[in-house]
Specification:
Radius of gyration of chain A: 19 Å
Order of helices and strands of chain A: HEHEHEEHEEHHEHHHE
Number of helices of chain A: 9
Largest sheet of chain A: 8 strands, mixed
Number of strands of chain A: 8
Strand content of chain A: 15-25%
Oligomer: homodimer
Chain lengths: 268, 268
Amino acid sequence: MHGYSDRERVRLTDQATVLTELLHADTRYAPGARVLEAGCGTGAQTVILAHNSPRAAFTSVDVAPGSLAEARTRVRAAGHANVSFLRADLYDLPFPPAHFDHVFVCFVLEHVPDPVAALVALTRVLRPGGSLTVIEGDHGSAYFHPDSAHARRAIQCLVDLQRRSGGDSLIGRRLYPLLVRAGLRDVTVSPRMVYADASRPAVVDGFTRRTFTAMVEGVGEQAVGQGLVDAAGWAAGIRDLYRTAEDDGTFCYTFFKALASVSPAGRC
Amino acid sequence: MHGYSDRERVRLTDQATVLTELLHADTRYAPGARVLEAGCGTGAQTVILAHNSPRAAFTSVDVAPGSLAEARTRVRAAGHANVSFLRADLYDLPFPPAHFDHVFVCFVLEHVPDPVAALVALTRVLRPGGSLTVIEGDHGSAYFHPDSAHARRAIQCLVDLQRRSGGDSLIGRRLYPLLVRAGLRDVTVSPRMVYADASRPAVVDGFTRRTFTAMVEGVGEQAVGQGLVDAAGWAAGIRDLYRTAEDDGTFCYTFFKALASVSPAGRC
């Protein structure tokens, strides 16, 4: 669902690098564990999963053949042999019930019109007692100094565009109720906040500039084209977002990571 | 600057209890250290400081005699003998230069029209190499599920009221540039995020309900009286904030804690 342009691909690689520790450090799968990565896109998370759990057996699926091919190339280039790739639809996974020990889903539910239905579909292929890990952002968690109405407006365009295409870029804050509604057990959500100021130049550059602001910048044509903002307002918003990366600026954003299990009784 | 009503006093006590670990766990002063607590209010933080650093010598000052008397009573009742109280103005502290080893300021700069001037005044009484700790909230860091325009409007009333009285309740995000501008060195800011969902009932009750929403609720008369919102809109905002404390709700808020030192060259 990501990764269709070169620029987007570079952005996703930067994002993965800066956020690897924050989002992945506490995800390690045991040797031999069967893990489904649902919605692998171009493999930005796949290489991290494969690296961190070298003896687990991953199956990474995506509905877009182009992304999947790119993910395969990326994972092979990184030298990992513990990932199989398969084209598949989240809602129609070609696996028997309870096939996997663990399921991992990152930056996918934000795009999905009915995230509870998606979670139920994923739960079907998870064995009783297995674990589900979900990671999502929340664009409403972004705030910064200097504050700017233009910058807030530009971010809101992203939220509006996502909503128009059936997604929800404010989904991070509601992972808990979504997982509970999907019937998962032992749901634990932990926020992972990114904070950037001049004392953390790698975060300022890797996250504020090259991840978040670049992502917003990438939808400029759509936002202006669909009349969500005029060109001047858009330019001011992007300028003010980059402004927060200067020496007296700060930037805050929060990802949410949820861990849950399937009831031993199952719900197949 | 806090603590003028009974209800407010109860609120501040609840807040201190829930937030003690999050905000204070990494602040410990050595035996014999001379520590200034600037703006102690009714002593909600003072009892925690005195408890966590039992052999440090605290001097807690506030400009309001009533708050100071209450703080003294509270600290005595808790059995701490390592705190002296003194009525004093932040900008005109009755201490010689470099008198203290450490300065601690919590929920004070948000009320101050010129926080850089306040920091410079505090720095004067801090010895070269001494440490300054600052803790502030940021009301713009609040977001929640279910989202609600009424609830966001109610919070904005708090921000507007604070601004009208010369303060800034969005100050947390700019602690870093403020401390740098005040001439402090080695400035490190760490965000402390509060996240509440039904799996954390003590946080839902202690923070969402009894700290944050109670605080917003407390300014209703002012907000409506000053025409920032009509009575129906206000009531809807408060209702929607309490709504986030129900079983499928979530609530997020972030405090910022800054640690810095005074240059060995001093700036007296």
